[in-house]
Amino acid sequence: MVDLLRKLRRAYSLFVVRTLWTHWFNPLYTLYFNFVFFPIRQAMRFPVFVYGWPRLFSQFGTMECRGVCRSGMVRLNVTIPGGPQYAAGNTQLNIWGKVIFRGTCEIGSGNKINVGSGAVLDMGDGTKITTFCNVTAYAEIRVGAQSRIVHRCQVFDTNFHYIADFSRGMVPTSARPIYIGDYCWICNSTTVTGGAVIPDKTIVASNSLVGKDYSNIPPESIIGGVPAKLICTGRRKVESRRFNAVLHKYFVDNPTAKCYTMPKDADHSVCDVD
Prior knowledge:
By secondary structure, the protein is of the alpha/beta class. Helices cover 17% and strands 27% of the residues.
């Protein structure tokens, strides 16, 4: 009887209480959003599902799918469980340039997405922007497949202002592209600035400043600090649901354990998305 009551209380919390405060699917906004931004043939497939009431400050720009285009592959202003807040206000969009989706994408609540005229925001398959992030493209920001930009991060390819350099008699451009590779994890409160290149399978530690090309670091590295420097190598974020389930069960069954020992022949792909 006690177990039954616990299960009922858990289900009530997950499917009733939480639902009251999440951003619900908005069919009218979804209809409007897709036909405003996407080519007609893609819009008819409704690639973006809109939740709640994201703030739209410009509808001059365009969006398109590259490769796959299917209903609901992009979820916008969605409530993301496990974030710092479930419903963190509404995401703001100021789209004057182009946004490209190459597969599934999840954009949580409370973000600001700003794409300037002539600029490109290119989102790879399986990308995620969680909550309270500020992503601004005035040149180009490219995010690779399965990469994560998590809460309170800033990704700016511009400093928004021109700065005159009288010592060299020049005014450099205010915007430089940002390239983030596949399977990257940009941890909370990190700032990524113009000219940054983050190679595949890199973890950026929290509260870091990334503003240069890190292409020469080894694969599966962790960088961090202000400015970010190489901390260690041979580390991967576990994205596999199956492996996560194994790890969760192990640490639940062994509450005093400090680590899980992987098999010696474990392939690095064990961390990849299932």
